[in-house]
TrEMBL record:
A GO CC annotation given for this chain: plasma membrane
Key words of the record: Amino-acid transport, Cell membrane, Membrane, Transmembrane, Transmembrane helix, Transport
Membrane topology: Multi-pass membrane protein
Source organism of this protein record: Pigmentiphaga litoralis
Transmembrane segments: 7-27, 47-72, 93-110, 130-155, 228-250, 265-284
Name this protein carries in UniProt: Branched-chain amino acid transport system permease protein
An MF annotation (GO) of this entry: transmembrane transporter activity
Similarity comment: Belongs to the binding-protein-dependent transport system permease family. LivHM subfamily.
Amino acid sequence: MEIFIQLIYSGVALGMIYAVIAFGYQVTFATSGTLNFGQGEALMLGALVGLTLVGLGVNYWLMIPLVCLFGLAQGALVERVGVRPAIKTRSEFGWIMATIALGIIFKNVAENVWGRDDLRFPSPLPEAPIKVFGANVLPMELLVVVGALALMLAVEIFNRKSIYGKAVVATSDDRAAAGLMGIDTSRVITFSYALSSMTAAFAGVLIAPLTLTGATMGAVLGLKAFAVAIIGGLSSGMGVIVGGLVLGIAETTTGFYLSTGYKDVPGLVLLLLVLALKPAGLFGKTAIKKV
């Protein structure tokens, strides 16, 4: 039973990382109907930039806001270079290929700057596990859960309380109407991409001390987070949390009780079932278009 609880703890920590990245997918989809398929690379760059700053002597807690600023700039660049031209020309698939291409470019840049070898990210917290309800849990895993929830809560509060956040919500509800009301929707979309990459970069520095850091670390995480966004629903914040927890726990338990070679199967099976039975996601709302 103790082992099972430990697997649950690890699955929750992993699932919350998936949820944060999936939350970034939601932000861009809400404002522009597009997705940044380079989210995994944004996470990877955040982790590597954070590792560099820590190596230069910057305190871990001071490093986090600096990495978030880097994520904001990187996301804005992706929108300006890859997404905005496709939106202006109404290219249906242009933004897909542009964000994928930029992700590959970022990965190649990372390989040339930091090398191809995986690097160890020093943990800011003690690495000795602590007992919680009879099972061991790493302090860094607790930080991942708390940090992920705090970030998503902060974004929700920003959207509800700030003027610019309300502009984001208005653009999400009806971009055309928001434009008629005087809201600069292009700037809002840029901000949504910046916010999306910032959440991924933040997730990168959270998970980096629990794993190895390298140029390839983001590809699988970004893909699985996209699956979480689809499972939970691209319009539901609660959905990405539930979807992330389900996928994370399914992976850790399957990897231990069956085989690590099968740990990806439950999540993919759930994804196929959701696509077949409820394409809008478990918590998503089906959009009705008037014609």
